[in-house]
Design goal:
This protein is mainly alpha-helical and 117 residues long. It has one domain. The chain is built from three helices and three strands, in the order H-H-H-E-E-E. The protein has a three-stranded antiparallel sheet. The N and C termini lie far apart (38 Å).
Length: 117
């Protein structure tokens, strides 16, 4: 299997870190989960080079899953003040290409990955 373009992994890491930071969730625990996800997806992308377009969204999903187990849902939707607390999720399901955070309640796009406010 071929080597993965590290730029892809750096981009995925930067985008997820930006979203963690935007929501004040860039804790040591969250950053550790991010590093683990990037490492795991590097191996995954080496096995399936055609999957490069999906790496960023999959890293975001991996971090989301890890945080759910450790500290609760992330990121929380801030667009629906009247609804019970709910999360955003990455669309499309496979994580790409062009992953966006979508509201769990309305199904409406909230922000591109890396662009949460």
């Amino acid at each position: 299997m071929g080597a993965v373009d590290d730029t892809l992994l750096f981009d995925a890491r930067a985008r997820v870190l930006a979203d963690l930071t935007a929501r004040q969730q860039a804790t040591p625990e969250a950053v550790s989960a991010l590093e683990d996800a990037v490492s795991a997806r590097k191996w995954w992308a080496e096995q399936w080079p055609e999957g490069a377009a999906y790496v960023a969204g999959l890293v975001a999903q991996d971090v989301q899953d890890a945080l759910l187990e450790r500290s609760g849902r992330w990121p929380i939707c801030l667009s629906c003040p009247d609804a019970p607390q709910h999360a955003l999720y990455i669309q499309p399901d496979l994580g790409g290409p062009d992953p966006v955070w979508v509201c769990e309640e309305t199904g409406e796009p909230v922000a591109a990955l890396g662009r949460l406010a």
